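So, read this over?
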Amino acid sequence: QVQLVESGGGLVQAGGSLRLSCAASGRTFSNYAMGWFRQAPGKERDVVAAISRNSGRTYYADSVKGRFTISRDNAKNTVYLQMNSLESEDTAVYFCAAKWSISENFYYTDTADYNSWGQGTQVTVSS
């Protein structure tokens, strides 16, 4: 399995921005589709964004469309989540996840699809 480490979380005011990073190691990063998920206290872990192996296809939850951008740099073994216009409802622990994918063009949006997870990074948006 690939090992994942998130960074970039923190406390930000509503309307502000944060950029999360997720560094992968242990396997060939370009063989993995990637996803960002978040979990607020008392709630389920939900998909935020997902990206295919070759960055050709991306997915965004309706709640973040137009505000968040997922990207990846296969040369740096890193996936990013740029978060703009943050709202208090975005407060959660954010996790990155990896799924080995035979296809370069698939993304995955179900937590059950992924078998490698990072430890999570806290994002707190103050109103």
